[in-house]
TrEMBL record:
<feature type="compositionally biased region" description="Low complexity">
    <location>
        <begin position="56"/>
        <end position="69"/>
    </location>
</feature>
<dbReference type="Pfam" id="PF13472">
    <property type="entry name" value="Lipase_GDSL_2"/>
</dbReference>
<protein>
    <recommendedName>
        <fullName>SGNH hydrolase-type esterase domain-containing protein</fullName>
    </recommendedName>
</protein>
<dbReference type="InterPro" id="IPR036514">
    <property type="entry name" value="SGNH_hydro_sf"/>
</dbReference>
<feature type="transmembrane region" description="Helical">
    <location>
        <begin position="20"/>
        <end position="40"/>
    </location>
</feature>
<keyword id="KW-0812">Transmembrane</keyword>
<feature type="region of interest" description="Disordered">
    <location>
        <begin position="56"/>
        <end position="79"/>
    </location>
</feature>
<dbReference type="InterPro" id="IPR051532">
    <property type="entry name" value="Ester_Hydrolysis_Enzymes"/>
</dbReference>
<keyword id="KW-0472">Membrane</keyword>
<dbReference type="InterPro" id="IPR013830">
    <property type="entry name" value="SGNH_hydro"/>
</dbReference>
<feature type="domain" description="SGNH hydrolase-type esterase">
    <location>
        <begin position="132"/>
        <end position="308"/>
    </location>
</feature>
<keyword id="KW-1133">Transmembrane helix</keyword>
Length: 336
C-alpha cells in the first residue's frame, strides 16, 4: 500500500522520465542535423556520363590522380538549406486554459495512507506559534501538562464544526473566556492550525454529508481570514470505548473510521495535511480507545493519553526550514 512518500516519489520519477525522454529527443535531433550537414559538405561531385563511359572502355589504363572538386562559395543572402522542418515558435508564446484530462476527485481514500508520516522530532518551540482548534477533546492538550504551554487554544465544550462556521459565542474550555471562535483564531496569528472537531457532530447518525460540507466551509473561512502562509493540519477523530456505542449509536468506531476517510479526502482537496492521531490513541484492530488512556465517559483521554498525543504531533510534522528539530534535521535524511 502506498504512503505519503510513495506518492511523492512516483510523481518525481515520472518527471525525471519525461526529462530524460525530452533530452534524448533533442540529442537525436542534433545528431541528425550534424550528420546532414556533414553529408552536404562532403558529398561526391557529380560525374559527366560521357566521361564515365570513356573510363569504363579503358580498363587497363592506370588510374590518374584526380583533383578534389573545389566547393562552391556560399551564396551570400541566400536562405540556408534546412535539415529539419521549420518550426513556428510564435505559437508557443501564448497562454490559454487547458482542458482538464485527469479526474482530480479523490475517492475511497484510506485515511491511514494519507496521514503525515514520522519525520524527525520538532522542539517544543514549534508549538509556540500553533493554534489548536476544536472541541473539548482537543482542549486536553492545553489543560494537562503536555509540554506546549505557549500554544494557543480555540477549543470549546460541546462544539461542532457548525459552531465554528456560524461563529457562535462559546466558552473557551482552556481559558474559560466567552468568545467567538473565528476572532480568537485570527487574533492568535498562528503559523500552524491543528483542527480536531467532529465527535459532537457524529452523535447524530446519518449526517456525514452535511458534516463534510460544514467542514469544507470552515477550511475556506480559515483560508480567507488567515495569512496565506498558514499551514492547516486536520487531525483524525479518535475512537471511543466500545461501550459508548450503546448510549450513543452514532459514535460507532467503524463509522468514525469511515468519516476519517472523508476527512482525508477533504485534506487532499483543500491542500491541508492529515494527521492520523488514531494510530497512537486507539487499538488497530477495531479503532477503539486504548484502555490505558480512557476516562469515565469513554470519549475523552487521560493525562497520559494527551502526553502520547502531544508526542505524536511532535514527530509527525511536514518538514519546514523554520522548524527546529531535536537531533538530526530530517532535511539531511530524506531530502527537501
Amino acid at each position: 500500500m502506498a504512503d505519503f512518500y510513495t506518492y511523492r516519489n512516483e510523481y518525481a520519477n515520472r518527471r525525471r522520465k519525461r526529462r530524460v525522454v525530452l533530452a534524448l529527443i533533442v540529442l537525436l535531433a542534433l545528431l541528425c542535423a550534424g550528420a546532414g550537414w556533414y553529408w552536404m559538405q562532403h558529398r561526391p561531385a557529380e560525374t559527366d556520363p560521357a566521361q564515365a563511359d570513356a573510363v569504363a572502355a579503358e580498363p587497363t589504363a592506370t588510374p590518374a590522380m584526380t583533383q578534389a572538386p573545389t566547393p562552391e562559395p556560399p551564396q551570400t543572402g541566400a536562405e540556408p538549406r534546412r535539415i529539419v522542418q521549420a518550426v513556428d515558435t510564435a505559437v508557443w508564446d501564448t497562454s490559454a486554459a487547458v482542458e482538464q484530462t485527469i479526474d482530480t476527485e479523490y475517492l475511497n481514500t484510506d485515511h491511514r495512507m494519507i496521514g503525515v508520516p514520522m519525520l524527525g522530532t520538532v522542539t517544543n518551540s514549534y508549538f509556540d506559534t500553533v493554534t489548536f482548534v476544536g472541541d473539548s477533546i482537543a482542549s486536553g492538550l492545553g489543560i494537562y501538562q503536555t509540554g506546549y504551554p505557549n500554544a494557543k487554544y480555540a477549543t470549546y465544550i460541546s462544539a461542532g464544526v457548525n459552531s465554528f462556521v456560524n461563529n457562535a459565542s462559546m466558552n473557551n474550555a482552556v481559558t474559560k473566556v466567552s468568545e467567538t471562535p473565528m476572532e480568537t483564531i485570527v487574533a492568535s496569528q498562528p503559523d500552524y492550525v491543528y483542527i480536531l472537531v467532529g465527535t459532537n457532530n457524529l452523535v447524530t447518525q446519518g449526517n456525514e454529508e452535511s458534516f463534510i460540507a460544514y467542514y469544507e466551509r470552515f477550511i475556506d473561512m480559515l483560508r480567507e481570514q488567515l495569512n496565506p502562509g498558514v499551514i492547516l493540519y486536520i487531525q483524525a477523530i479518535p475512537g471511543v470505548q466500545e461501550t459508548v456505542v450503546q448510549t450513543k449509536p452514532g459514535l460507532d468506531n467503524a463509522r468514525i473510521a469511515t468519516v476519517n476517510d472523508l476527512l482525508a479526502n477533504l485534506a487532499l482537496r483543500k491542500g491541508c495535511y492529515f494527521v492520523n492521531i488514531r494510530e497512537a490513541l486507539t487499538n488497530p484492530a477495531d479503532g477503539s480507545q486504548i484502555d490505558e488512556y480512557q476516562t469515565s465517559d469513554g470519549v475523552h483521554f487521560s493525562p497520559s493519553g494527551y502526553r502520547v498525543w502531544a508526542e505524536y504531533l511532535a514527530t509527525h510534522t511536514v518538514w519546514n526550514r523554520r522548524s527546529q528539530y531535536s537531533g538530526q534535521n530530517p532535511y539531511y535524511i530524506y531530502g527537501a
